[in-house]
Fold each of these.
Amino acid sequence: MAGVMTDADYNVLVVGGGPGGATAATFLARGGLSVAIAEREAFPRFRVGESLVPNCMPILERLGVLDRIKGHGFQPKFGVTFHDQETALEHSFSFREGRPWPSFTFDVHRAEFDAILLDHAAREPGVTRLQPATVEKVAFDAEGATVRVSDADGERELRARFLVDASGRDAFLASRQGRRRPMPGLGKVALFAYYRGARRWPGREEGNVRIYIFPEGWFWWIPLARDETSLGCVLHSRVVRGWQGTPAALFQAMIERCHRVREGLAGAEAVTPVHTAANFAYTVEPVGGSRFLCVGDAVAFVDPIFSAGVFLAMASGELAAREILGAFREGRFEARRFARYERAFHRGMKPFVRFIEHYYDPLFLEIFLKPKDAFGMVDAVTFVLAGGAFRRIPLRLRLGLGAFFAVVRTTRWARRRRGLSPESRLEW
């Protein structure tokens, strides 16, 4: 392959062994490059963000790991259910047949899912796993990157021709040579824990992710295998600022205020402590540069309402690998070579962000939870929420999506004319 040189330890160093890093490493190695994955934590390790979208399935198949995922015993998921406590509106969106992906996916224990992907990557010829190993420093030059790695044997320097930042919310490169830009209005706070013995639903609805909206924020309810449930509460910042007690006490208080959650937890027991995450919606810049690209949460993290995190990590990992392999073939590694990658990432992420920003508008929720399938609007919405925006959206579905948001705009205008438009919760 043109551009592959021998005076470096590796062609590519991937910082981070989560879904984005493991995906990128697998595809890079299959393209003939030598790859090292530096993951600072020992696996398995706890991670939240357990719900996949259907478009993850083709990526898992291309990785060659789909059968292992299917056979592991994860909880199948066929749709998503939303419930708004204030209006009592509820609607279930089911994943549809006839798409470029299956009509189901999985809710996963991330500790196990991530370990499967990293083990799979490490089995590829040409992949070296450094774990646990922390990348302390990086310095770029015209020929690549020199990194300082720390592990059980001490510190050492490695040379790589290219670096992929898949470090997640740590945003390794942005914290050292870039910047992290908060998404306006989405600086919420999340509290979450695992429970055993929580309510389960019968049949195909057992694995539905359930979103319970109440005045102070919203809960995610993700049924997992082995009778475990991931429960998280995303709160408006003003609620957290006004709280005087501990995060655990705040979490319990919110459970009491959200009727469906309180009822569903009757007789259940917590099996983890309450974890917190704050100010978690951001983008970073630069996304790419001479001799590096960022993937997954190291590029952006969005509000988890539509379960996009793992998909964005894997989709960007595959996309980054494609661009890096092209760069090695061409022997071109300048920043402008990777502008196409940045455009593609943001184009794929944009529809999720659009839905998230509208989601905090009570008027949008009224329309979203009473969908009418005129002009194929429901078909278009489910296509986007299944991860379809990383593909070319068919014209029929683009028109349906446009019709959906046109209804939102028209209804909002009409309500404002009558003085009835409610306040958006985005800035709360």
Amino acid sequence: MSKVVRFDRFGTVDVLNVVEVEKPSPSPGRVLVRTITAGINPGEIKIREGQLEDIFPTTFPCGEGSDFAGIVAELGEGVTSPAVGTAVMGWSDERSAQAEFVSVPADQVIVKPESLDWKVAGSLCIVATTAKAAVAAVAPQRGETILVSGAAGSVGSLVTQLVLRTGASVVGTAGASHHDWLRSLGAIPIGYDNDLQASLGRVAPSGFDAVIDTVGHGYVDLAIKLGVEPNRVNTIIDFEAAARHKVHTDGASKAQSNTVLTEIAKLIVNGELQVRIAAVYDLKDVRQAYTQLEQGHTGGKIVLRVADP
């Protein structure tokens, strides 16, 4: 048997349950992974609440989770690597990662770098690929000034660092408790002021060349007010405003690949990117994990601990 996170109707965290199902077997071309850690992401909240049915339709009972890391337990027919016993990390497109065992196509896992922390490995894919796509959408150039909303969040923190690596400057909105960390990266932090537009004008009097929005709450509208060209704006969450202003909505699906995951993992191992872990919960405490995520301003990834390595 395998313990899995499931919900059978839309609703709050109260619809989430950890139940036992038959352990999956890998079909041809797939691998079965014994999960060590799994990530949780804000998009999963909206799916569970029924807000994204037109984009990600749900069939009940529905699982949860995309990111995971673990140990290869079985190989499906035609798969020769990674070998059984190999530590891997990857993603599921079937909302099945928050479980003791997860079966995915073999090309959706990579070998986990030995020195990469399990907590980071199991929660990396979605934020890494989302950040990579969001930055590529607006193509920052050396010397430009880029506004990043939610710059200390799980996606925003990687966006900030990837933009800085291009030689552009970053002004990032974040709660006051995260300002020192953003400064340590080389970004200019700014709080959630009552008159944010005026505050942004003071810190960037020459304006902004591009905006990357990771939180919604009107940043797409603000970008247009600030005079940023629509083709230099990307939001990963405010699809209504994106449609009105015809801005980019590039996210994980645009960059999701072994190549990107390998690239970001290598940068982390080499100390060139930082991933902060805000909290770790046991699988049985999945409701508490999502409750913390829904409160926002986590300042890092929230991770589910499924098993010991």
Amino acid sequence: MSGAPLMVVGRSNRGFPRRRINFAGFLICAALIAYAIYSQFHLGLDPCPLCIFQRIGIAALGVVFGIAALHNPRGWGARVYAVLIAVAALATVGVAARQLYIQHLPPGAIPSCGAPLSMMLKWMPLTAVIRKVLTGSGECSVVDWTFLGLAMPAWVLIWAAFLGSAGVIANARRSRELSSSGTAGFSGR
């Protein structure tokens, strides 16, 4: 009789690590966005268009992590979140890698600075703006912040790759509840 409550507690806690990882991913993304805003308004580091796209990617990743933590699905629902996390993380890694590439171009190969993003959005179609931003401009090549020898897009790339990997692993793996023979038919949800 004393074993039954332990089984219920053990069974209900099996989904907790996935939820905890998703919530931690949400908090890390929120902290990254908070630091980006702090660096813009308090350190005076104006974001270039690629930086803004990286912020959007990290914010999207945080939103997916947050919804996954609140929803805490099992089975195929968790795998859907794994795919969404992978897409957001890969897009962010791609934009950060593009900016790192631009930052490492020789001085004569750097594209000239274009119009500010707000002006491009006002006068150009969205697809043309995205194409223009992803080609980069001179302002995207400026390295005005480093930590441990790495520029901000390198840190975004590292965090996006780490968060994407952790989110995919946590959400794509099969739940222990489904694989254990004694509890496969019973679920508290």
Amino acid sequence: MFNWPIYFYSLVAIGLFALMGWMLSLVRDNVTHVDSMWSLFFMLASFTSALFVFDSTPRILLVLALVSIWAIRLCAYLSWRNWGPHEDHRYVEIRRNNEPHFWLKSIYIIFGLQGILAWIISLSLYGAIDSNAPINALDYLGFVLFAFGFYWEAVADWQLSQFKANPANKGKVLDTGLWRYSRHPNYFGECCVWWGFYLIALAGGAWWAIISPVLMTLLLLKVSGVSLLEKDIAERRPQYVAYIKNTNSFIPGSPKT
């Protein structure tokens, strides 16, 4: 049976954390740190749910361990990547389109919206945590898919950071390593992570948590991921036109030439 109070408690925890992030943005006059908060929303929701389930089954411990590893790595990477006083160009545009009083609107446009999305997507984490079903083959399959996605995403991020660290690559397009097989291998890895979490939830009987990986996949493909990044990238990097023609967008595959 779906335990609404426990799921609601995770929303309260996310909301309070989002409020703290918004208050910090007023001090910094910069909302970019919400990117670093994104993965922590899920870790916070998971531990809040586990706290009120009052149990420590193998599945709960597995989910808490996996979401912590994923969240801390992603938070650390994004914090390192975005370090500095300058606001990310995406948020600069959002700020410009929502003046005057963006400082107030950002509480729901930026922090509130991301908090609500994280809460909905965390449904698969909650479904896995609030289950007494024994560990089964789907749990192992979910773990394997998570591990593959985590590796793929982490390696892609590392390769991109190494590429950008070389001044000689400024304005160029990374088309080697995992980026040779997909224009967005980090997003593909992220997608695998969330389908892995869903398989673990499904193993616990939470088939209804399917909205979690589906929504995350849609966000990665159509909203804040592939579509947003490629909206004007060809204007800034002419070489990207050839990269688009020769390389799969999302699912890895052999280059076309």
